[in-house]
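[SOLVED] Need 3D model of a two-part complex

Original post:
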Amino acid sequence: MKEDVNLALSSDVHIKKSFRKAVIISFIFFAIMSIISAVLMMYNLFLNNQLNDLSKKTSDLRYSINLQSTKKTKVLQLQDRLSKIAEIIRTRKNLNKKINIILSLVPSDGMVIKKIEADEKSVLIEVGSADLSLFDTVFASVNILSKDFTGVQSVDLISFIRQVDVTQDSSNPIFYEMILRFNYTNNNG
Amino acid sequence: MDKSINLSNKFKAYFVPIILFILSFALIYFAIIPQIFSIPDKKQQMLDQESQLASLTNSLNVLRSISSQNLDRKVQLANTALPNNKDIELIYQSVAVAALKSNVEIAAFGTRPGKIYSKDGNIKEGEFETDEMVLKIQAISGEARNLTRFSNEIQKILPLHDVKILKLKEDKSTYEVTSFYKPSDIKSLVERQVVNPLSREQEELLKVLESQWNAQSSVQASLSAF
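Solution:
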């Protein structure tokens, strides 16, 4: 009987101990979770405040910018137009540049330009002179410049004609005419 | 009977810890996890707002630093270089300046006005591309070099032009020239908030356009005097 009573006592003590342990653990766990959630909540509130401040400043700035909307539109219009102008200038075919380079090969004294036909792909030039040596000058210049020509793929000699002027009043009856064609690659400047 | 009362008392004793655990897990599920996940989003939003704020402050400073008078002059210059519409009169005047500067006479001047209305579904709202108008010009001069100079001058005048085809025979030449213009899309410009200062390239371009316009306007003034 004594033994039974002792056994009962030990079981009660064990239950009370484990109950106390469970209460303490659950309370500590709950307290930690509460603290964590409170800290997170405060941090989130702080972030929300910061965000509100920033959005208020942003809307104030938008308002200030809108007060100058005419000026803003003009600046944006100017920038838009300038970027388009730059694009046009960059993509222009520069036909004149090609023609000018080719015309620089033709001596201005003693040689006349009779015809020029120029487009994106080629420049055809017809020149005439009474002095045959001037054609040598042109050929020499073509040879030198063709090495530096950007975009010139080939130069064709289309024709070379020797003409005789039969009229009596002509002091220099022989006249030469030459047609050259400069062919360009597609990606020429 | 005694045994069952004893068992229920035991469970009653564990009621408080069980409730506390349930509340703790509820806190984890409903408060801690959502707040942890919302922090990166909010930080990202803050970064976005800060960068927006910086660009808007910059825009406001840019607007405050530009003088209205100077801006009007620059806009006018840019609109002369690239007009809003097909301004035939302006184009003809500029071609006449090029003719005068290169000592040629304009024998014929024609245009191919092109599209006057489009219901093209491919064009997005607010997208206004540069448009072109083709000009056909016939010029006469006793000197062939003047006729090539004329094509050089056309390339220099404002509004912007591009000589596409040149056919010269003795004292006569024909040119196919593209003249550029661009309709303004004010609606989309008004909606934009960020204004950047003019870049160095844009300032340089304005200087080039200004010098071209100054050279042209003096000749244009003498033309008007006739």
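Edit: Residues 28 and 34 of chain A are 10 Å apart (CA to CA).
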